[in-house]
Amino acid sequence: MVRVNTVSKTIAPGVRTGWIVADETATAQFDRIDAGGEPSFTRGLIDRYCTDGRLDRAVARLCEGYERRRDRMLASLETHMPPSATWSEPSGGFFVWVEFPEGTDAEAMLPDAIDAGVTYLPGTFFYPDDGGRRFARLSFSYASPSAIDDGIESLARTVRDRVSVTGGKNG
After folding, report:
1. Distance CA 27, CA 127 (A)
2. Is 90 exceeded by the pLDDT of residue 163?
3. Residue 6 has what DSSP assignment?
4. Backbone torsion region of residue 46, taken as left when φ is above 0, otherwise alpha when ψ lies between -120 and 50, otherwise beta
5. Domain-by-domain residue ranges, the chain?
6. Global pTM?
7. What CATH number labels 65-166?
8. Which of 86, 131, 148, 149 has the highest Cβ tally under 10 A?
9. What is 20-70 written as a DSSP string?
């Protein structure tokens, strides 16, 4: 197993420093192609940021914000989606996985959702075969609470319109 990560999303977008967790054979290959790496000044700043508690505080603030937006999306789904729709209640991450009512094709419905001002990734993007037709992955990580409410309300209206037009049939 090899794990590669970066601090660019947690510290600052311009900080292009990362790390790898792997066995010695794999890390030796990375050392072989290292073209000089990050300046020692930047490494020192990152070290200080990570060891003096600022990183932990920043991550806690980020998690609180994501949790509020996740909770807002879950509440909005509960308020607006048809009763036959279901969704995940994630304990982490940035996405809610929605299952639309029987007969709804999330990929076919996407253009209508986009016209209504909403976008998502259809479940078919995540299946190697023809599965996932009724599913969509919704992101809550970036949208404001009011945008989440507006988006879910528009998406629910699109689902209802699609189900009523197709009579619950795929299409």
Report:
1. 32
2. no
3. E
4. alpha
5. 3-52, 65-166
6. 0.78
7. 3.90.1150.10
8. 148
9. EE--HHHHHHHHHH--S-S-HHHHHHHHHHHHSSHHHHHHHHHHHHHHHHH
